[in-house]
Amino acid sequence: MPNTTQAPLFSATAIAKNFGGVQALRGVDFDVVAGEIHALLGQNGAGKSTLVKILNGVHPAGSYTGTIQLDGRPFSFASPADARSNGVGYVPQEIEVLEQLSVAENVFAGRTGLGAGMLVHQRKLEQRAGAIFADLGIDINPRAYVASLTSAQRHLVMIARAIVTKPRVLMLDEPTASLSGTEVDALFAVLRRLKAQGVAMIYITHRLPEVLAICDRATVLRDGQVAVRIARENFNAETFIFSMSGQRLQRLFPEHAAPVGAPTVLEVRHLTVAGHSGAVHGARDINLCVAAGEIVGLAGLLGSGRSEILHGIYGRVAAEGEVRVTGQTVSIKSPRDARAAGIALLTEDRKRDGLLFNLPVGANITIGNLAPLSRHGMVRGGLERSSILTAMRALNVKASSPQAAVTHQSGGNQQKLLFARALMRAPKVLLLDEPTKGVDAATRHEIYRLLVELAEKGVGLLIVASELEELIGLCDRCLVVADGRIVDEFGRSEGGEDRVLRSVTAAQAERHAAAAQVSA
Amino acid sequence: MNSAAEVSAPPRDARSFRRRLIGLIAVGEVGVLAAMALLIAFFWLLEPAFLSERNIRAILNVVSFVGIIAIGQTILLVAGEFDLSVGSVAGLSAVVAAKLMTAAALPVSVGILGGIGVGALIGLLNGLIVVRLGIPAFIQTLGMLFIGQGLIQVVTGGYPVYPLPEAINTIGGTDLAFGLGWSFAFFIVAAIAADFVLRRTVLGRNMYATGGNKEVAHLVGINTSAYKINAFITVGALSAIAGMFVMADLGSGGTSIGSGWELTVIAGVVVGGVSLFGGAGTVAGGVVGILMLKVVQSGLVVIGVNSNWQQIAVGVIMVMAVGLDIVRRRYFIAGA
Amino acid sequence: MNSAAEVSAPPRDARSFRRRLIGLIAVGEVGVLAAMALLIAFFWLLEPAFLSERNIRAILNVVSFVGIIAIGQTILLVAGEFDLSVGSVAGLSAVVAAKLMTAAALPVSVGILGGIGVGALIGLLNGLIVVRLGIPAFIQTLGMLFIGQGLIQVVTGGYPVYPLPEAINTIGGTDLAFGLGWSFAFFIVAAIAADFVLRRTVLGRNMYATGGNKEVAHLVGINTSAYKINAFITVGALSAIAGMFVMADLGSGGTSIGSGWELTVIAGVVVGGVSLFGGAGTVAGGVVGILMLKVVQSGLVVIGVNSNWQQIAVGVIMVMAVGLDIVRRRYFIAGA
Amino acid sequence: LARAADIHLLWVQAMKDHPVHRLMQAGFLNKCKELGYTCEVVGDPSATNWDIPATLPLAEAALARTKYDAIGVYGPDPAIYSYISKLAKEGFPIVTWHVLPPEGTVNGLKAATGENIAEAGTNAAIAIGDKLGGKGTVALTQGASNDTENAMSDAFRKTIAAKYPGIKVLETQMEGFEPSAAEAKAVAILQGNPDVTAAFGTTGNSIQTWSGAARKAGRDVVVVGMDYIRQNLDLVKSGAAYGIVAQPLYEESAKVAELLGDLAQGKTVPYSNPLPAKVITAADLAPYYKMLDSAGQ
Ligand SMILES: Nc1ncnc2c1ncn2[C@@H]1O[C@H](COP(=O)(O)OP(=O)(O)OP(=O)(O)O)[C@@H](O)[C@H]1O
Ligand SMILES: Nc1ncnc2c1ncn2[C@@H]1O[C@H](COP(=O)(O)OP(=O)(O)OP(=O)(O)O)[C@@H](O)[C@H]1O
Ligand SMILES: [Mg+2]
Ligand SMILES: [Mg+2]
To answer: Chain D residue closest to B261 (CA)?
Structure first.
């Protein structure tokens, strides 16, 4: 247990930041001591990311007011390079990787050569990157190109990238948002070791159990101000939620029971999905069905092919097999067909395949949904605007106006925009890939309620979520995916997180045995 | 209470005027319009003849040619691609139309349709190859620039097609009003129509989505390939029309019609705020950008700048106009 | 077990040879090299004189000029920017150097340094304006293309600078080996050095990171501005050197040296697999791409293709070479 | 008009910065200075790109500002004819140069001067034909395809065919205006055609192109090209090239100034003012060096 009364290693005083009119931070004091993991909590748009971006030089000195101290001496970072060379490491919230370079090069990006002077030793880079991944308990080939990784794997690459700089202060902005249990555990093991080495860490998350698991102190931001600082002794999920939102939550997951005997809205038979860029990923011989009003979850480890199944159904990647919607066989060759059949998809990586940064918030919601908002091909401005405002209100999107730029929205708000887009067409089947990624606890609750409401209206939901608790709490039925196949299925109250892990492990053991037989 | 709802009803307070002013400055085309207004005032102060009817007419006339192409290029840039073959397509379409009317002795209308057909066909080809085969537009349309130039020589044997049927000279010589003819009329109508389509229709919105992020557009059900291919066809057909208007204006199917236009057109629309990276810009902006470049070129002659310095000045002003626009965005829109 | 990890340890089975072959095909430069080999064989079969010593020498000679620029352009493209002013900078540097040696009667070495200085200075200016003011490279360097052309006229008054000091003609006429001179030697040395730097040094890898994703590069502590600015300076200085080699070769500081190179150079390096969008490609690839274009141009003349069809063929082959590369990537790399 | 300085003359020329065009402009402006006229040059500032639509508004801009008394319009492309007629209709006396369109073919054109292009091609053919002794193969290049160069090539071909049946002329190739690329192309022509013993180029750079190519290819080629700029004279003097078609660029341009001045003062001038365009070889260089010296070039 670090001594939080000792002199802080890294501190910020009276930080205020204004984005042309939007006051993101209003005089925040914050500090972290060596060997401490300090949670930074708050609702979407509270200013968490903005604060760590300031502490890391992404928002350079001069663009904010207030002071930063490192080792008790005032510092101001002109750029991330500055912060980095002073021992500050940073894992950003959004995926920021170099897609055209290899994993190893990504991990060591921006560092000087290993060994003789300015020369790069690919081999050595690969070995060292491999060692770090082994440490993190994950299996990513250092020679693979990042373009071929799943978003969770990309996130792990970013974490490795921050760790190799051997920082004294490490800031992690929602590092686990797309990770599942096993990876989170491995990450925590690493963080604990760093902690023992005296690294000071700032940890942003919306997953409150994680705070209970590894944080020593928590600071809650609300509307750009520190709402409360909580010592470990007083940690309690309810307190966190109350101090973040001013509301008390009764139950995290709303009551829901799948209607008995409801007609099937989505039926998938023998679906085989080609992986992105050839053979690396994929899913084979998938059979599943979702009844009207049913919430079905796809559980599995990272890279298991859950997203790929959704993409196959939605026509985003080539797939063979049969898809039926409300009993009708539909031929889905592209997302267009899927939408026509009443299927909507919420994608996983909002930056890469979710948002249109060239269009404002409002147009991002209505894109693809303009038909009912137009007459003779002309968009009816008034109607569009009112339906945007309705959608924004329904999901509590915190943008200043429908004309606001998407780039300026906080991560959680961006997620809500995409939600609004997917819901606008009243789909029969909703495919959701990590629907609450980066969404704060209160809103998450709202989203759960919303999903249950949709289910009650007869929509069939198929959800991929890495947070098993969420999946198990929400879903009527869970399918376990391992290595591109469905290996297990269980209903509400038939199992929990351990059941998923057990079936995954069993599937892997089986595969290894089979592989051993082939090579023998 | 939701913050989005707050803004939907802007506060009617004292700052309202300031807000409205900033709102005006934030409009995309204002940057280049301001730059142009400044330049016009400058030229006019130094030499009032700059705003003489004759000069205005000459500028508007030449703008109508490249302007027609700029409309297409803007649409294509919004859809996230661009076309270097426009000049070459303009030239080829003109000589093909001319040959159809003269050597093949077909009616003028057939010749014109043939010319437009050639342009649209090349646009289709460019589009198919870029979209379906994944060849970068730069390479495909640069290749097409060469191919078009070669075909111009093949079609004409290197000799301008001259004389042309009287009907063509009549089209070129018609004075509809203020000494401006059909090319200007077409240009204005096409510009207004295209601006409207991009701004107000579903088609236009989908075009912006396609250019902004193709993958996202695809996922929301937009047939991005169709949008891109159609944008290529549009720019091809408009280039053809521009080429034929030049031919009618000059009364000769010259082999060098359109040569060198590829960069001028792109430069003009980019000066007018159209993004090279897709998904941003308006037809109004693109057209004003082209107009500004032509105003500069003409103004420098009118005020009697030494001819060697004219090109230098054009280069500098082009960069400065874009710079002004960037400053405007940075300080007014961010600050709004 | 992750499927990506499988690839790291290739099974030493019978398929090993096939894998190694595919590995070879996967190397970036193989696509364009294969295309070039095919073309050379084709030209040679039709006309053995194509592979005569003299013709090879002539091709290598002319490649060395644009090739020097292609090295710089490749580096700049890798860093995520590009430069349309290269031809104009080449011409300007040449005439400035020529004027320094003749009109200003300075020593030849000072003239050459002056020429390189002009090129580097323009590169610096381009870099500063693009990076610090955020003007798109397309506009800034196109503006600079015009400015350079204007300055060439200002410096020379429109007449070629002639005669040049004997020392320059000597540089241009030296035969180091196999009839190739200093320009080729410089080209080869610079290409090897640049290829090594991009491939093997931290500098090079940071350049790829900068061009691959500027934000990420910035985030991991790379001074992306410095990298970009230096890449602009490099391409400026190399353009200047190329321009002066052309001048030495011709024995005259002509006013049209470099005109039209902007698109040729970019086309060549893109054919060689360098990405227009930054962060991908190698100097070897870029240089081979340019070489392929020159081989085509020369081959078509040697085998006696009608001049009208030459341009068409160049356009088609350019597109096809890139197409071949795309097919290679799709089927061999993805499938590996 | 009272004083010569009150006579305003305008010169309109596309591709204004081409070196040959610059030489013409110098001939015109120097003559103007000599005669005391006030003269101005306008045109699209490019050294390589022939763009008439871009040139016209610049001419109009000058016309909007200044009341010109007569205008010279560079005429080697029928695309400019309609503009000539338009200006003539407004009452401007118009002169063109470098081509001699038959009288009456261009409405309103008052006078034309320049070499007889066909004759220049013929002269070049005779020079080469005689030098080769009536046998051999000749390569033929143009800068680009345009009326002037086409007419000259055609006359060249026709003359060779008529007078020297033993000489073969290759298909015309385009060398373009960028010198290093032009030379590479010429080398390729020599490689592809081992029998070439002479070359004729109809563009200003072709003497340099061909003599450079002959040196690089290690071949003996009888080179004839255009324009007596100093470098070309030197190449003939050194033996690297055989002859120059001494296009009267400077003279014709000076003549334009004279004709325009006369027309501005209401005098009548003859419509056609042809100038000789002979082929000069090593023996005839002296007067041309002198002319360049006196022009300060
Ligand atoms: N670049 C920017 N320009 C304008 N406004 C911005 C910008 N970045 C953030 N904001 C605004 O600042 C506020 C705080 O955003 P920030 O990203 O720090 O929130 P957050 O606490 O990280 O939220 P989340 O949990 O959703 O990630 C939000 O209102 C956001 O819209
Ligand atoms: N080559 C590629 N191009 C684009 N996207 C890719 C590529 N390879 C993988 N992806 C992305 O990776 C995901 C594939 O993940 P997959 O379905 O295999 O695993 P998952 O179980 O969803 O795991 P994860 O939690 O890692 O997303 C898809 O979301 C897809 O967007
Ligand atoms: Mg955040
Ligand atoms: Mg996934």
So the answer is: D51
